[in-house]
Design brief:
The protein has 219 residues and is mostly helical. It has helices spanning 2-17, 22-25, 39-48, 66-98, 106-129, 138-146, 149-171, 173-178, 180-184, 187-198, 207-216.
Length: 219
């Protein structure tokens, strides 16, 4: 819920700041999850472990620089998920270094461990997933704004088939194992990359060991 809400809010807020009021008038420039969660997407998320939020309506014609600002509006969604993961990693570091939870009950430690684990991993996975260049994902919209207009028109004509390709990749195990699963395998590499960048601010720490100690002990 946090990941979906912040992701869609980032799209809506950036579009509004660039001059497009479409999402604002639709009530999407808010951090209230009810404005962003899709009923079917939420049910599937709970039942099948995969879901989606309501897409944010964006009118690129309202932007001063439609293609450049369109890329930014598309990119801030996945980047917002990466930012949440970064903040989660920093929070885990601070809690570990200060021993803030050392006197808490095992139940509290377990709850914080579960929450932190899923907060970080889900947001990193959503960052990767939304950059896939298949409609209706953000990666596809970014590619649309990068290619020449002639190619973009052709992509628009074929976009309605993208949702079927998207669903096939997600729900057919053979396709998923050769597309999404290899991509998602990079999530821990991204985790470690972010951790190493954190060392520029914090004292060096054995991040894999911290990960194991903090999360495994609470699972």
């Amino acid at each position: 819920m946090i990941a979906f809400t912040v992701h869609e809010f980032a799209h809506a807020f950036s579009a509004y700041k660039f001059g497009d009021r479409t999402a604002y008038d639709a009530g999407r420039v808010t951090l209230n999850p009810r404005a962003h969660l899709d009923v079917l997407g939420t049910i599937l998320l709970l039942v099948a472990g995969f879901g989606w939020a309501k897409p944010v309506p964006v009118n690129r014609g309202k932007f001063k620089s439609p293609r450049l600002m369109g890329i930014v509006v598309s990119a801030v969604g996945p980047l917002s998920n990466l930012l949440i993961a970064v903040l989660g990693i920093i929070a885990v570091y601070i809690v570990n270094e200060t021993g803030y939870l050392s006197t808490a009950s095992h139940g509290v430690q377990q709850a914080v461990g579960h929450f932190s684990y899923y907060l970080i991993t889900i947001n990193i996975l959503l960052f990767l997933f939304n950059l896939i260049p298949v409609p209706p994902l953000d990666g596809y919209r970014i590619i649309q704004d990068l290619v020449p207009l002639q190619i973009r028109y052709r992509m628009d004509q074929l976009a309605h088939w993208g949702i079927f390709l998207f669903l096939l990749i997600v729900f057919i195990p053979a396709l998923r194992s050769n597309t999404l699963d290899p991509l998602f395998s990079y999530w821990f590499d991204i985790f470690l990359f972010v951790c190493r960048r954190c060392e520029l601010v914090f004292d060096p720490v054995n991040w894999p060991l911290l990960w194991t100690d903090f999360f495994a002990s609470s699972m």
